[in-house]
Amino acid sequence: MRVTEGTMANSSLANLQRVRERIEQLYQEVSTGVRVSRPGDDPLSAQQILDLNGLLEDGKQFAKNISTGTTYLSAMESALSGMGDALVRVKELALGAANGTMGAEQRESVRGEVLQLKEQLITLGNSQINGRYVFSGFRNDVPPFDANGVYSGGDGDLRIPIDRTNTISVNYAGGKLLNGTGGGTDIIGTLDTLITALENDDIAGIQGTLSDLDDSAGQFLSARTDIGARMNRLETATGFIDDTKLYLQKVISSKQDVDFIQAVSDMTRQQTAFEAALAATSKISKISLLDYL
Amino acid sequence: MSLLGIFSIAQTGLVAQKVAIEVTSENIANVNTPGYSRQRTIMETAPTTTANGFPMGTGVRVAQVQRSYDDMLQRLLKNENSSYGEASVEQTAMIRIEQLFNDLTSSGLGKSIQDYFNAWEDLSVNSQGSAERQAVLSTGGLLADNFNRLNTYLTDLKTQADQSLQGLTSDVNDKLKTIATLNVQIQQTENMNGNANELRDQRDLLVRDLARKVGIEYREEDDKTLTLTLASGETLVSANLYGEFSLQDNGGKYDIHLKQAGSAAGSPVDLSGAKGEIAGTLQVRDTIVDSYLSRLDELAYNLANQVNSLHTAGYGTDGSTGNNFFTAPAGMAGYSGLIKVAVTDPAAIAAADTDPTLPAGGTGNNLNALKLAALKTAQVPSSYGDITLTSFYNTLVGGVGVGVQDAERSVSLSESVLKQLDNLRESQSGVSLDEELVNLIKYQKAFEGSAKLITTATEMLDTVLGLVR
Q1: ipTM above threshold 0.95
Q2: Signed CA dihedral, B357, B358, B364, B368: sign only
Q3: What residues make up the domain containing A67?
Q4: Mutate which of A1, A38, A44, A130 to disrupt the B interface (most B C-beta within 10 Å)?
Q5: What pLDDT score does A195 carry?
Q6: What is the CATH number of the domain that holds A166?
Q7: Using 50, 70 and 90 to split pLDDT, how confident is the model at B10?
Q8: Is B79 part of the contact surface with chain A (CB cutoff 8 Å)?
Q9: Are A101 and A181 within one domain?
């Protein structure tokens, strides 16, 4: 092939350009730490990275939901614990008052305390978190129990998403808990019966409430077990989200991040090639027949 | 053969070498001229005569000054220029589109889809929260804005492509006219046995430049003129006649019309398959951008319909129902530019599935918000199959990536072929200074030799004249 000044200039320019382009690309990768910075770099990986980033974002949102759910459940948990304590005290008092040796005056003071405890149950039944009543179903912007313990809340099941397919309920219907709606023990009613019996010195009546009080304790216990189980589920879900997050980050990194050792060694190699090309170009373009004529 | 014959032979030598040196100097001077083809002086012996029974030469003469030219290379270069022109225009557009859809480095539409459904999820956790309701409205607004923004940019890209046709066609018209003028000049020069090498170089260069703008075919006629046609047969240049492209506005975009060489009236011409920058521009305007725009429209349309059908079934805290969340799409085409949030009152956001104002309801009802939040992971039927809305978008981004890669690949392929062909042409037709310098010395020495002949002949003549005295 005939080689002219033009061919030499063109090819050395093209070669230098090619090496420079590769160096620039490697520089980009090393300085950003990212191998895929635009869809055209690697369309398939780009799409996967976006999908995976979406899953990661979903995880963050689920974690946020779970943390809200946990505060709801904890609020119910502590309310139930307070209710349980109150009920234990009521049971003690009822047992004492069912004893025939107790005088009418004493029963009167017991009645006073039971009234207080009933009020406490109602207050706890109106527990709220962030202004939302947790025992009120969907009507959670108004107190579910009035002063007499009459339930006006709903039975809506407030569920929140905890992963891509599951939701979990974060409330508990107060009517079911304290009024026995739907086939349970009417705890408030039992307390009212007890209070009336205490007022009337009706020992048989007082004794009659004892078994209902036992059932009431069972009712609280099953509610607490239910809520405890839900909290466990939330914990499991959190653990799963954390694991998934780690795994996703690893996969994304493997798809998107630069292998620094590889990139830097490539860059060094290209730099050497570039210097060699420069040196060769300057040597060759200096040679001319003019110098020898 | 007389002594005087030596003078005339020497003279032909001087003249021929001088011409050769002139050609060499032209070559050296044009070493960097684009499109220049090196020229060679072809010498031949002058007719012989017979003297004293022997054939004797009468010196040298310049047969022709020849241009190093390879028509096959010219044709290859022309074709590759057309492919390169088309590919490079398409690549420029794809790079712009890629920037718009690059969710890898910036938060684009994909993120706003996600944010919007996350806002619904937040609302499902606290369905009366005014902050959560406001967030659904504002992320919805942002989502609509992002759709509108992408739609505007893509539409702009089409408009820009359309407008660039003006510059392209006027450039092509200019070149056609110049080629026709050169046709005449070359014909006249060569008919008078002149040397039109430089004019031919110019014409060849123009043909190659023209081929970058629009794909063409050419043939050289017997009368030395070049006839240019489109691949589809329309005549662009014929001898001194040239055609003209014009643009006619047709419903907001240009139609290209061609008045063929020698014809009086123009008619529409389809250049979309003709290669070259014009074809690339038409592809960008009529096909490439639209393919992404229609996906964007589809996504906006599906998203709005899915959201609206759930939202109209739900109830706001104020008991309102049957409200569309996004403006109801009249059709899929162009919807990405029209989508807006239709709900203005945060209380009208339908998080509940029954009327919360009824005794059986309750504003805590989040069942509809849950359904809407679940849309994020719902498989929606689309042209990509049953796929979630975010996956649809991600697939679209992947598709853009593939488009960019294809465009880059064709450009770099074309570029390297062009480089090779250029090198071949340079090797065939380019000027080598070394070669010219050697030629220069060769011709100079020959010139000196001829001059020496004259001196010698003069001395010989003097000697003969001395005999007489």
Answers
A1: no
A2: negative
A3: 61-227
A4: A38
A5: 92
A6: 1.20.1330.10
A7: very high
A8: no
A9: yes
